[in-house]
Amino acid sequence: MSESLSLCALESLTHMVKMHMLQGYKCVWVDIPDELITIVDPMALPTDWRAIPAPKSSKKIGDKWFDSQRTPVLRVPSTVIPVEYNFVLNPSHTEFERLTIGEVQDFEFDERLLLY
User: Fold this and answer.
1) How many structural domains is the chain composed of?
2) Domain of 87?
3) Best CA proximity match to 5, nearest among 26, 22, 21, 24
């Protein structure tokens, strides 16, 4: 998940190369109480956190959060736009039900995004 629909679209585009891959997408809004979010401090990230492929050190941050069961949501900086944020959800967390999940809606990418 991302903090905005546009960031979510950019994150998705980083993994696509053909227009047919941009079909059939959905979006959903989620309201998350602040106290249910663990925030990763960008200054605490390893120096290679934006490397491709993602380094094991970044995965360890998520693993540690998941194993702690502290919160159902982890906020991390986007590697695409580091001053914006993505959210990792743990639906098996006991407090996950406190998130308000909206209706699923169709999402269409603009074809111009992949014109070369």
Assistant:
1) 1
2) 5-114
3) 26
Distance of CA 6 to the CA centre of its chain: 12
**Residue type, position 29, single letter:** W
Do the bridges between strand 73-77 and strand 37-39 make them parallel or antiparallel, or are there none, so unpaired? parallel
Q: How far apart are CA 10 and CA 13, in angstroms?
A: 5
CA distances from 29 to 8, 14, 32, 53 (A): 11, 21, 10, 28
CA dist 10 and 88 (Å) reads: 16
User: What does the alpha-carbon distance between residue 69 and residue 94 come to, in Å, rounded to a whole number?
Assistant: 9
Residues 35-78 pLDDT 10s: 999 999 999 899 999 998 889 999 999 999 999 999 999 999 99
Backbone angles phi, psi at 100, to 5 degrees: -100, 115
Pairing of strands 105-107, 73-77: unpaired
